[in-house]
Write a structure and sequence with these properties.
The chain is α+β, with helices and mostly antiparallel strands. It has a domain at 56-171. Helix content is 40%, strand content 24%. The strands form 2 sheets. The chain has a 4-stranded antiparallel β-sheet. Strands 1-2 form a two-stranded antiparallel sheet. A hairpin with a 6-residue loop joins strand 5 and strand 6 (162-171).
Length: 174
């Protein structure tokens, strides 16, 4: 601001409007740009978190599907007919279960039952491992137990979320 002095009058302050015309606009635009950058960064972080949560949910569904097939296979071995055990004698073990596609090499023996949240029904494979004498497991009596390997494969909501589980079942002599 300039000070105008005229003879016989008090000092007046006159605005320098010509020098200040664009300063407020530039400051406002810079503030708007900073706020926009913060908003875009926040949106990208929230989108990433949503994707991570979706993947974790999909993985949990695939694990539960594989677990359901594993439990179904164990129940079939323990409570099922003798034909289930006989079929398992003819099946080969899955040496690299993480590469098993659940469709072939070897073919699945059965399926598990799950809800409609999966992209494919979970499957399982049974294979006979060995006879185990009772004295090797500390029960005595000279009985022979049968040991089986159970492998299950479950998918989540997308075919990319896959879980493969294995367990060993030791069946008492009948």
């Amino acid at each position: 601001m300039k000070i105008n002095q005229e003879p016989g009058r008090l000092t007046q302050f006159a605005p320098l409007s010509q020098q200040q015309q664009g300063a407020t606009l530039i400051v406002a635009l810079v503030m708007l740009l900073l706020i926009s950058l913060l908003a875009v960064g926040g949106m990208q972080g929230s989108i990433l978190q949503e994707r991570m949560a979706s993947n974790a949910h999909d993985g949990a569904i695939s694990f539960q599907a594989s677990e359901a097939a594993l439990r179904q296979a164990e129940a079939d071995l323990i409570l099922g007919p003798l034909a289930v055990r006989l079929n398992a004698f003819a099946e080969a073990r899955i040496l690299t279960p993480w590469t098993w596609d659940g469709a072939n090499n070897p073919t699945p023996i059965g399926t598990g039952t799950v809800g409609g949240n999966v992209s494919a029904e979970p499957v399982y494979h049974l294979a006979y491992l060995a006879d185990v004498p009772s004295n090797s497991i500390g029960t005595g009596g000279g009985q022979i137990f049968e040991r089986y390997e159970v492998t299950s494969r479950g998918q989540g909501g997308s075919p990319n979320a896959v879980n493969v589980l294995q367990s060993t079942v030791l069946l008492s002599p009948q």
